[in-house]
Amino acid sequence: MTQTDTLTATAARHANGHAPGISRTGNRLFFYTLFYFALAASVELWWLNTPAGSVDTPAAALIAAGRVTGMVGGFVLIVQTLMMSRAAWLEAWVGAHELLIWHRALGGTVVVVVLAHAALIVVGYAGAEHASLAHETWTMLTTYRDMVSAFVATGVLVALGLLAIRTIRRRMRYEVWYYLHLSAYLALLLGYGHQFTDGADLQSGFARWYWISLYAFALACLVWGRVVEPLWLNLRHRLHVIEVVPEGAGMMSIYIGGRRLDRLDAEAGQYFRWRFLMRGGWWQAHPFSLSAAPNADWLRITVKVVGDHTSDLQHVRPGVRVFAEGPSGAFTAGHRLRHGALLIAGGSGIAPIRALLDDLPADTVLLFRARSEAELTFRAELDELAVARGIQVWYVLGSRDDPAPRRAFSPRGLRELVPDVRRRDVYMCGPDGLISTSRRALRRLRVPGRQIHLDPFEF
Ligand SMILES: Cc1cc2nc3c(=O)[nH]c(=O)nc-3n(C[C@H](O)[C@H](O)[C@H](O)COP(=O)(O)OP(=O)(O)OC[C@H]3O[C@@H](n4cnc5c(N)ncnc54)[C@H](O)[C@@H]3O)c2cc1C
Question: Which contacts (CB < 8 Å, 24+ apart) does range 315-318 have?
Answer without folding.
Answer: 316/241, 316/244, 316/254, 316/276, 316/278, 316/281, 317/241, 317/278, 318/240, 318/241, 318/242, 318/243, 318/244
